[in-house]
Amino acid sequence: MQVYQNKVREYEKAALKLGKVLNRLSTIRLLAFIISLVLIVFLANERFIYLLLAAVPLCVLGFGLLINRYNSLVFTRRHTAFLKEINEDEILKLENKLSGFPAGEYYLDRAHPYVSDLDIFGSHSLFQLLNRTATESGQILLAEWLNAPASKDIILARQQAIQELTPKLDWRQQFQASGKHYKYKKSDYNQLLAWIDKPEKLLPRQSRYIVASILLSVLSTTVAVYYGVHAFSGEYVIYLIPLTIILGVNFLILRKIKPIFKDILDNVHNKEILGSYQLLIKSIESNEFQATRLKKLQKAFSENNYSAGKEIGKLQKILEIVDNTGNKFYPVFNIFWLLDIYWIIMTEKWKVKNKSYLSVWASAVSEFEVLSSLAGFHYSNPSFAFPDILDKPYNIHFEEIGHPLIGPEKRVSNNFNLHSRGEIAMITGSNMAGKSTFLRTVGVNLTLAFMGAPCCAKAAQVSNLQIFTSMRTRDNLEEGISSFYAELKRIEQLLKLVESNQPVFFLLDEMFKGTNSKDRHKGGFSLIRQLAELNAFGIISTHDLELAGLAGKQEIVSNYSFNSKIKEGEIIFNYKLTQGLCNDFNASELMKKSGI
Questions:
Q1: For site-directed labelling of 281, which of 98, 222, 305, 443 has its Cα 20 to 30 A away?
Q2: Taking the C-alpha atoms of 389, 390, 394 and 400 in order, what is their torsion angle to the nearest 10 degrees?
Q3: In the predicted model, is pLDDT for residue 455 greater than 50?
Q4: For residue 430, what is the DSSP state?
Q5: 73: pLDDT confidence band, cut at 50, 70 and 90?
Q6: DSSP letters spanning 553-571
Q7: Is 573 helix (H, G, I), strand (E, B) or coil?
Q8: Cβ(387)–Cβ(449) under 8 Å?
Q9: What DSSP line would sit under 457-519, residue for residue?
Q10: Cα–Cα distance, 411 to 394 (Å, whole number)
Q11: What string of DSSP letters covers 528-555?
């Protein structure tokens, strides 16, 4: 945390210093404008024509340089503010204050095998803890990695990349800040790709349109000049008729292509997304990497002997020009020179040349963002270990595993192992002793492991498994589904998944809690026996000591427990996993505390 606090102070001082420089430069710019204006007026009044001709371009050039310098400093100050914000965010994440971060709730799928039960998305979620992306495509990719376990080869490649990026604190933060200069709204990224994929309208007939625009531009300009020259002599009517005809033809052409130009104008906001990608690509292109995955991603920006950053810059400039066509002078120039045709053709040429690469560039940037996010997570938690991914199936080994969403000052770690198919751990415990939290601890760390991230553990070895949970089943009034029926549907999904013979690791919390105790006990034991017969692999938690004892006696499960103690009317939890059945009861004491 000290590193981040030092950087917050460093960037705060830099921002204040830049603010003072900007104030001085703003004053200098104003003085330069006044002096230039006075000088030009003086030279014009004194009729110093040659000096005036020299002074005007020099004054304009000098003032333009001052404006560029000012804009550059504004960008630097904003970048510095982003760096300060990034380090403040890292401090909040270390303190587990996640409420102000994007929760990614739109990526939450209730039907998913595990995300809704393990706090992957939503308030105080793993997504909030990990996410350091700036683009929408980066967030989407992070959500995809959280939603689906990767293969062993991909996991190892990601681990190598994350380990290389972890110590590159300054580069990672500069990279993250580069993406913050342009804000985006949800779905902007998909709209950009959809617009780029639209078919070309003028490009197939560009020769016809360009020849026509050149001829009409020359004619309209020539006639307009002649009209202007002869207007003073009174001989202008003869030139007004052809000028009107030519401009009428120009108007008809512009009206015909107006929908095409309007489509570009409607998508001109894409220049902001493109600007974000351009800055991020520039940051990637300017660095050297050793990890195989990072080098492959970096290479995506320089294929075919041109820079992706420069190509994106070209389209961004076209869109900036189009964005400025709303000024009062543009329609006059446009009716004479048919400028819309050139912007449309230039845009469509860019699309034809680069549309097949844009999604590749965006994907590479997004993966860099996600890998950098996970490296930031690792940098902030250096004690977290990268797991070994085992070739043999059905094996989980964690040393001192804890929940990453619980702060280190409150986190209690445990050892946990399951080593063969058909092995089921059953966990009993008193109320609030930590059963459900432990199930989520194992599930969340497996999610981290299978996306290539470090786990909240001292050491870990895991097989590549499909995670499946049934912990927070909800009723659905709209569909008329009770919580009990919703749980049955989840169990049905689990049984089909296990029967498919793919390696599955399940987490079941308080089976059949939506029905009466007799049916719950009977159904629970039947399910445990069925899972054992299917050689299922996972963890079940329950309050039902009789059920756990019966299953343990028949050697269907291995019993573990969390226990508590009551001392001087206070319930004390140690949150340590022990072998055997739970040996304490605290429900009566909790009810007494509630006034019952």
A1: 98
A2: -60
A3: yes
A4: -
A5: very high
A6: HTTSSEEEEE-EEEETTEE
A7: strand
A8: yes
A9: SSEEEEE--EEEEES----BTTTTB-HHHHHHHHHHHHHHHHHTTS-EEEEEESTTTTS-HHH
A10: 27
A11: HHHHHHTT--EEEEES-HHHHHHHHHTT
Report how far residue 37's alpha carbon sits from residue 39's, in angstroms, rounded to the nearest whole number: 5
Nearest to 509 by CA among 441, 592, 462: 441
Name the residue with higher pLDDT: 431 or 577.
577
Q: Is the pLDDT at 13 greater than 60, yes or no?
A: yes
Encoding tokens for residue 306? 């041109």
Radius of gyration from C-alpha coordinates of the chain: 33
Is residue 427 within 8 Å of residue 583, measured between CB atoms? no
CB burial class (10 A; 0-12, 13-18, 19+) of residue 155?
buried
Confidence class for position 478, pLDDT limits 50, 70, 90: very low
Neighbouring C-alpha atoms within 13 Å toward the C-beta of 495? 13
Whose tokens are 């970048």? That residue is 79
Taking the C-alpha atoms of residue 147 and residue 153, their distance in angstroms, rounded to an integer, is 18
The 8 Å CB, 24+ separation contacts for 290-299 are 290/164, 291/157, 291/160, 291/161, 291/163, 291/164, 292/157, 292/160, 293/157, 293/158, 293/160, 293/161, 293/371, 294/161, 294/164, 294/165, 294/368, 294/371, 297/364, 297/367, 297/368, 298/364
